[in-house]
């Protein structure tokens, strides 16, 4: 699905002008024990590409999933990068990441309106399995 982009008419050439948009975002969330999640997105109307990367890190180890889409052709690519991990360790690493983020979030409590405490239930999202 393509979104409609407002167009304007160039007075000198009488050609339609489509604005070019480049949008990028980056975020990092951290938890105790060297656990962090990174997210990066880029959308570029000039090149017609949309990219997204999510990285799960524990200390010096990481599993990074990258997806890229060419908005003009519809072609999609998916890559994964493993840092200080072998392919056969990926599943165990993802389980360890989920466990460590769940433990960190279970330790956080928030006061409710009635004076009692409730636990934070939203864990960091897991990387999709293949």
Automatic annotation (TrEMBL):
Transmembrane segments: none annotated. InterPro entries: Myeloid_leukemia_factor. The keyword Cytoplasm applies. Residues 70-81 have a biased composition (Basic and acidic residues). It is found in: Cytoplasm. Its main location: cytoplasm. Keywords: Cytoplasm, Phosphoprotein. Residues 24-52, 70-90, 109-130 are annotated as: Disordered. Belongs to the MLF family. This is Myeloid leukemia factor. It comes from Timema podura. The lineage of its organism: Eukaryota, Metazoa, Ecdysozoa, Arthropoda, Hexapoda.
């Amino acid at each position: 699905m393509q979104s409609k982009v407002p167009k304007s008419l160039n007075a000198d050439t009488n050609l339609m002008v489509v604005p070019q948009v480049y949008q990028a975002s980056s975020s990092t969330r951290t938890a105790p024990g060297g656990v962090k999640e990174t997210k990066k997105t880029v959308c570029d109307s000039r090149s017609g590409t949309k990219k997204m990367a999510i990285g799960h890190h524990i200390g010096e180890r990481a599993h990074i999933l990258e997806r890229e889409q060419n908005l003009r052709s519809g072609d999609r690519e998916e890559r994964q990068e493993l840092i200080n991990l072998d392919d056969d360790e990926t599943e165990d690493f993802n389980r360890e990441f989920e466990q460590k983020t769940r433990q960190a979030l279970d330790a956080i409590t928030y006061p409710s309106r009635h004076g009692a405490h409730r636990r934070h239930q939203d864990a960091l999202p897991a990387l999709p399995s293949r």
